[in-house]
Amino acid sequence: MYKALFYKQAARYYEKLDAKIKRRINRAMQEIINNPLEGPHIKKLKGRLEGKYRYHLGDLRIIYFVSVDENIIYVDAIGPRGDVYK
User: Fold this and answer.
1) Contact 69, 48 (CB under 8 A)
2) pLDDT at 85 over 90
3) β-pairing, 72-80 with 3-6?
4) pLDDT at residue number 51
5) Which DSSP symbol is given to 81?
6) What pLDDT score was predicted for residue 1?
7) What are phi and psi of 33, to 5 degrees?
8) Do 76 and 85 contact (CB within 8 A), yes or no?
9) pLDDT for 79
10) What's the 3-state SS for 5-59?
11) How crowded is residue 79: how many other Cβ atoms within 10 Å of its Cβ?
12) CB-based contact 36:5 (threshold 8 Å)
């Protein structure tokens, strides 16, 4: 099993959300922790974000990268689809 660490930007965004959306993100993070590299909502990113993954959660996206050696998932950003890739 992997451990998830949130970068400052992702943690700040998460803290501002209401309880209902936080629960959705918590469920998504549980799926990511169990299998971070593949799944129906997971896609490996290309281009400028090469090496990172995204989790599709309705209109939100969770951007993260995985350190397989350390069993750590680094959550880079959480946000709306249009803003999170910038």
Assistant:
1) no
2) no
3) parallel
4) 95
5) H
6) 86
7) -60, -40
8) no
9) 95
10) EECHHHHHHHHHCCHHHHHHHHHHHHHHHHCCCCCCCEEECCHHHCCCEEEEECC
11) 18
12) no
Q: Which residue has the tokens 């974000």?
A: 49
C-beta neighbour count of 42 within 10 angstroms: 18
Find the Cα–Cα–Cα–Cα dihedral 41, 47, 52, 53, rounded to 10°.
0
Q: Mind listing the pLDDT tens digit for each residue in 15-74?
A: 999 999 999 999 999 999 999 999 999 999 999 999 999 999 999 999 999 999 999 999
What domains can you pick out in the chain, each with its CATH number? 3-84 (3.30.2310.20)
15 Cα distance to chain centroid: 15
